[in-house]
Amino acid sequence: MQGLMMNSQLLISGILQFAERNYPNQEIVSVTADNPYHRYTYKDCFKRTRQLANVLATLGATFGDRIGTLAWNDYRHLELYYAVSGSGMICHTINPKLYPEQIAYIINHAHDKVLFVDLLVMPLIEKLQEHLSQVESIVVMTDQAHMPQTSLTNVFCYETLLAGEPDTFSWPDFSENTASSMCYTSGTTGHPKGVLYSHRSTLLHSFASALPDCLGSSSTEVCMPIVPMFHVNAWGLPYTNVMTGTKLVFPGPKMIDPTVLHTLITKENVTCSAGVPTIWMVLLDYLDKSGLKVPSLNRVISGGAACPRSIVERFERDYDTALVQAWGMTETSPLGTAFHIKGTNRDLEGEALTDLKCKQGRGVFGVEMKIVDENNQELPWDGEAFGALKVRGPWVCSGYYGMSHTPGAEGCPVEEDGWMNTGDVATIDAEGYMQITDRTKDVIKSGGEWVSSIDIENAAVTHPKVAEAAAIGRYHPKWTERPLLVVVPRPDTDLSKDELMDYLKAKLPKVSVPDDIQFQEQIPHTATGKINKLGLRKQYENYQFSE
Ligand code: ADP
Questions:
Q1: Sign of the dihedral defined by the CA atoms of residues 497, 500, 505, 506, in that order
Q2: How many other CB atoms are there within 10 angstroms of residue 151's CB atom?
Q3: Cβ atoms within 10 A of the Cβ of 417, count?
Q4: Does residue 530 line the site of ligand 1, with CB under 6 A?
Q5: How far apart are CA 141 and CA 159, in angstroms?
Q6: According to CATH, what is the number of the domain 9-210?
Q7: Which residues are known catalytic residues?
Q8: In this structure, which topology does domain 443-539 adopt according to CATH?
Q9: Cα of 109 from ligand 1 centre, angstroms
Q10: What is the pLDDT of residue 107?
Q11: Residue 449 in this model has a pLDDT that exceeds 90
């Protein structure tokens, strides 16, 4: 017998319509390339979103077309999220910081029909134009006064187009399984691969993300997503936060400028923010140096890479800000786990509690997870056994755009057993807290033992003279691989190799103590702000440990 419930489709336009009716006066504040402080309400936003949907139709875009965006976090990008997906088109966010050849590949592979680009991205587009034969129109996300001189044809001004359209639009109804947005993974090997989210996956992900034991979201909060809107849809926050009527603060192109971040936090009373650990390190250093505080900020969400313990401790001890670590991937929308103490663990305190906070959190209902050994046999949840982390669920990718989605087939992320191998190695303890010990490709295989590069890095960054650290495995004639630690010392300090080596010997098991340390002024980062291990391995390609 079937249930007798309405089969309403879960559509992104539903979030928009609900928010418009229920939170018309909620605010959205943005920094943009053409305005250092823009402010308007949800009501203004959705009126313009309807105008934008009309613009898309006027530009000849129809249901199912891919609409590319190369933009930072701001109100116009938010309007695009809703106008494009609400119209049944696919909002394809592209990272402007990728290599130009990668950007051209991604735009062509996705067959983007229209590109919406930030003012600051125009010089890049001019360089790429001859490679973008399928793009019919380029819209510069600014007003007429700021339109750049350009030799390109088919270039339009966002505000001029909007002004020419009515603010009425009837959002179409269609299947919730329709694709809504897409994001290419940076792909450390081969070409980037397109992950295609659906309306259904996006809405289910938003419901889960808004739960108090997950990322949490409410109309009483002020959220500043620093994680870019081109990086897994800013971890879904532009959907989750609008669903719950949260005030949004967007730092635009200033997302790594701690002065601007601090101003936005204090002026707008930001209660919650989200970003990669590098951002938190930059913000904390700025606060420490300036003596400034962030009294409204009650929690920051950290994901994308392991969060060093020092960041957890500094936020909590010096700024009374909780750090919520979350784990996920482009392929998982991205939410897989998030940290929140369980009611049954609430007596934990001190070091034991911090230990737990440094793990990647607990599973979220909707994503099943397990760890397996080399023979795909499930391993126990005892906090000791570690193995390949596998996941499945309604917001986990079943195949990449334009590639096979038959489980087990080449290029399909899902294995024959129906689970996706995340490429991460993890432990899960008896309480369900998961800890990433490494990425499969970053694990250092020393003799028969697996050494976690994350453990070494986390130990190194607790040294007061270390600003950043990355461990990579390098060839060793006896052990096959041994750890090499690359360190950026804090400015104006006199850190020596011996001092750091002694420190690490006291902190790490013998097998994890690096065989050598190299000092550098900088460590390369990927376009999403993570340490670029691939780049480091290349840099130290011919490195040999001395006898
Ligand atoms: P990429 O890093 O390849 O550009 P993603 O953004 O999808 O693509 O990265 C997903 C990966 O980032 C995960 O598989 C994991 O290795 C790492 N990651 C994400 N969150 C965390 C976290 N909280 N702790 C440790 N690693 C994390």
A1: positive
A2: 7
A3: 13
A4: yes
A5: 7
A6: 3.40.50.12780
A7: 185, 331, 445, 450
A8: GMP Synthetase; Chain A, domain 3 (3.30.300)
A9: 24
A10: 97
A11: no
